[in-house]
């Protein structure tokens, strides 16, 4: 079974307040120091990459326990509670999705990474301009050196600040996708997550993707969405997003 873990970067509340908000909404949630330990509860941690006008302490990252395809309701309740309490996101925030329960052999991870590189221009149109290419130092593009490290199983030499982060395998059995902008919209988060998991599923099933020209193309993005067999709701959300971003070019 495919599993997920979410890291929701936010501004407007300290980790202690974030944990209190979730606890008041009925979740087992705790504020902790910055760490990469997988918990069975929701946790809120500090994150030095976040910028806010409210002061140095008024930002934090909300990290989920291990979730699955049946967890959309839980994610929705979390994001609603945060939004209702005035928590928000800005351009310094990202959404990181950890995916497990897939083929995490060296060959499997290498094929996912190759697909991500080949499809990067099409994927770029699914995220905000601030999360594309050189615009985002915390989610840089994969390159040939990354493929070499993965092919050799040398995950320790990888830069974790990439759109596709396989160095997470040093800590837990997941790959991390870091490219999406911060969001507290559960439907949009879930659509992006379904896109990632479905892409990995079709790659595991033998699908291979040719390199796309290094330019944004709505047609290429729509063809990609067709290829990964999304649910109607997720496909609608991502199609609308890609169309809006394409119109803004």
Task: Provide key terms for this protein.
globular, alpha+beta, 249 residues, seven-stranded mixed β-sheet, 2 domains, 7 helices, Alpha-Beta Plaits
Can you give a write-up of this model?
It is globular, with a radius of gyration of 17 Å. The chain has 2 domains: 90 residues, Alpha-Beta Plaits (2-Layer Sandwich); 117 residues, no CATH class. 38% of the residues lie in helices and 15% in strands. It has 249 residues and is an alpha+beta fold. The chain contains 7 helices and 7 strands; from the N terminus they run βαβββαβααββααα. Helix 3 packs across helix 5 and helix 6 runs antiparallel to helix 7. A 7-stranded mixed sheet has the order 2-3-4-1-5-7-6.
Distance between the termini: 38 Å
Largest sheet: 7 strands, mixed
The helix content is: 25-40%
What's the helix count?
7
Unreliable segments (pLDDT under 50, ≥5 consecutive)? none
Q: Class by helix and strand content? A: alpha+beta
């Amino acid at each position: 079974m495919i599993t997920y873990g979410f890291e929701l970067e936010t501004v407007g509340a300290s980790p202690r307040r974030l944990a209190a908000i979730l606890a008041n909404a009925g979740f087992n949630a705790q504020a902790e120091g910055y760490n990469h330990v997988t918990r069975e509860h929701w946790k809120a941690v500090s994150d030095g990459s976040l910028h806010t006008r409210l002061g140095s302490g008024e930002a934090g990252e909300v990290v989920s326990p291990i979730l699955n395809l049946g967890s959309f309701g839980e994610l929705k309740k979390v994001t609603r509670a945060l939004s209702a309490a005035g928590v928000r996101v800005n351009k310094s925030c990202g959404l990181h999705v950890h995916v497990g329960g897939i083929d995490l052999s060296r060959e499997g991870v290498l094929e996912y990474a190759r697909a991500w590189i080949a499809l990067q221009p099409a994927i770029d149109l699914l995220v905000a301009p601030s999360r594309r290419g050189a615009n985002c130092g915390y989610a840089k593009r994969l390159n040939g050196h990354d493929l070499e490290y993965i092919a050799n199983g040398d995950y320790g030499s990888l830069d974790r600040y990439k759109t596709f982060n396989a160095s997470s395998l040093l800590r837990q059995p997941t790959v991390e996708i870091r490219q999406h902008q911060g969001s507290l919209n559960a439907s949009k988060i879930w659509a992006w997550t379904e896109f990632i998991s479905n892409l990995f599923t079709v790659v595991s099933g033998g699908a291979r993707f040719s390199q796309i020209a290094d330019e944004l193309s709505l047609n290429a993005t729509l063809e990609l969405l067709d290829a990964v067999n999304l649910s109607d709701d997720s496909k609608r959300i991502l199609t609308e997003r890609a169309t809006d971003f394409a119109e803004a070019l």
